[in-house]
User: What shape does this take?
Amino acid sequence: MELREKTTHEQDLFITIILKNWLLQVKRGKVLLDGISEDEIMKEVAPGKNRGIYIVGHIIAYHDLMGEILGYGKRKYPQLQPIFIEAADKSGLEMPGYAELKALYEDVHKHIAEQLEVLPTEQWYQRHEAMTDEDFKKDPTRNKLNVLVSRISHLAYHLGQLRLLK
Amino acid sequence: MELREKTTHEQDLFITIILKNWLLQVKRGKVLLDGISEDEIMKEVAPGKNRGIYIVGHIIAYHDLMGEILGYGKRKYPQLQPIFIEAADKSGLEMPGYAELKALYEDVHKHIAEQLEVLPTEQWYQRHEAMTDEDFKKDPTRNKLNVLVSRISHLAYHLGQLRLLK
Assistant: This one.
């Protein structure tokens, strides 16, 4: 019994580390957005590059898909995909305003946190929904936990860009 | 015995996931630098912000410290710390050239990879060197694995900025 408890403990510890790092980046994003004005967010992060508003929408739309890859549910805001995932910035498609995007940022990440906190330990070690059983046999590191680690990098990457608006 | 083997396997799987994500970001950095010219790297990533050359040096200097936090050895290039960690960009301190920094990027990350690949599994779950035993008791997630996860975010954050030079 002692070994089994240790295994569970170590698994939980690892999941906790990843969840904490995820929540830390999400929080940093919120603090950053709280400090960026309506005017600033409409600017390009660098000359000729994406505008802040597009990057914020892109983060939300991309993370909103997480439930379909981790298997806990469908995207909540499918209307964001054509604007912020399928299209590049300045596509001419109408975007939600900054206040609405900030509210969606909170809502999408709150939903993710609620789902991830109750995801059973063993599920984290299963393949994600975008790959086959066969591929997973070849590479068992491509599990759901790995998806979250890659989302941490994705979020940090874009926060580094948004930071330039300050 | 079967439980113990499972424990080790699962621990190795966590570590493998984190190492793979780390190496992926390091590789992305190399590919990115290979595509940024001598002229481009001397530019600010956005008006009034850090220049590419400073960010590259900062990444190298920061990662060069990793051995002291993970306990596998001293920094290899202490001369980088005053320029890229203690000072901000445009401090007037002389910087290594881009070709030299690209070589250091390879060298520092090769050294880290060699050290991390042989770090024993149990060491990943120990406290890092910059915290006390007492603090670690309160929060066992602050282990060496957590340090590497936070370095992945740090690297991704700055790669998002360097990407704007292209």
Remarks:
- Residues 44 and 51 of chain A are 4 Å apart (CA to CA).
